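hiii, so i know i said id send this last week but things got crazy w the move. better late than never?? heres the sequnce for the chain we talked about at the cafe, plus the structure i predicted for it. fair warning i was half asleep when i ran it
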Amino acid sequence: MAARLDRLPILRTHRVLTAVIGIGLFFDAYENFLAGTIAKVLQKDFALGGTELKLVLASAFIGQFLGAIVLGRLADRIGRRRAFLINLAIYSGFSLLGALSPNATWLIVSRFCAGLGIGAEYALADSYLSDMLPPGKRGRFISWAYTVSFCCGVPAVGFLALCGWCHRRHWASPAGAGCSCWARSAPRSCVFLRRRLTESPRWLEIAGRQAQAEEIVTRMEAEAADPLPEPDPDLRPAEPQAVPISRLFSPRYLRRTVMLWVGAPLSALEVFGYYGFGTLAPLILAARGYGIIASIGYTALSYLGYPLGSLLSVPIVERVERKYLVMGSAALMAVFGLGFGLSGQPAVIVAFGFLYTLASNVFSNAYHVYLSELYPTAMRGTAAGTAYSLSKIVTGALPFILLPVLTSGGAGWVFTVVAVAMVLLIINVGVLGTRTTGRSVDSVT
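okay and structure toks below
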């Protein structure tokens, strides 16, 4: 199946699947950036103290830590599509309950439970798209899926908050939950989308369901307008197998797992730079004396860099080796983050914030593609889920780490921490990373 899938051109099926996954990622981006954007408003409405505010900011990410591990593993056992349906139901239901929060405790608990569903979204999306897309276009179309998300999700948070939605705390979360219920439940409830979200033939093959895999691949081959080249004879059919988690530490994959887990793991370090800005930028601006409207407004303008950075990654992600693209964009994040943290004038703050978010989404898209290429189909969901779980638990601890730094040292020190994290990330990937661009996911692994 791998050789037959890899020889396919980009088909209408690939485009539809990318769009469907992008819609789900849209609302994940909305949810993940919501708490940081409305933090000051929640602090006022609920009279939150320092510890309660940290718990509100951290609760969803702690849930995501557990969700990424459990549902990422489940995707390798029961299939990508079924795992999608489970995580969509969990997120949509608890997101709606969060909208009705009468107090801080309810809000914290509901965001934690919603996080159980949110946590698996990136791992499932990356695993599924890397299974389905041919090697020469894989990075570009995964980037397109995240572009759908960030072209709308992140700016929507900032500008809806600016327009006053988040001043009435019951509006922002129902908007996210209601839209999320539609987009994320669509594979089950909407015939139009359900027909187009197929199971991964690579997973079906290693699960021993050869006939179903054959049917899907044959249907995709029939879509191709031109004659297809012969399949790569070096890519042999995968044997049905269930892979234990311990395989992550086998000699073949130990170097990659060390890169992600030990010392300065990629999945943990990237959240300092990526979510560090999205979660704390409004609080940093407020700490500098800007009012709620001004701080949200400046942050909303800075957030425009997210969709533009995601768009920028589309044409370059296949032209620059993924390993070096991750390293280069991390270096730009360090520079622009320090500029944002040390700036004093509003125009300069917005400019550096924009450049920082632009670089961070080039980094993010390259990172998502890179992680999805490092492990074979039988363990791709498990590996991605456990790696993302590390990033989520660090993100959950982020407010406890950076808010005291902000209080005692100011914004400059916050982004100094971010810059140091990015330097460690560059060293980590440079020493332990492998090249993946343009190669079949089965040949890489």
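btw Confidence is low (pLDDT under 50) at residues 164-192. thought thatd interest u
miss u guys!!
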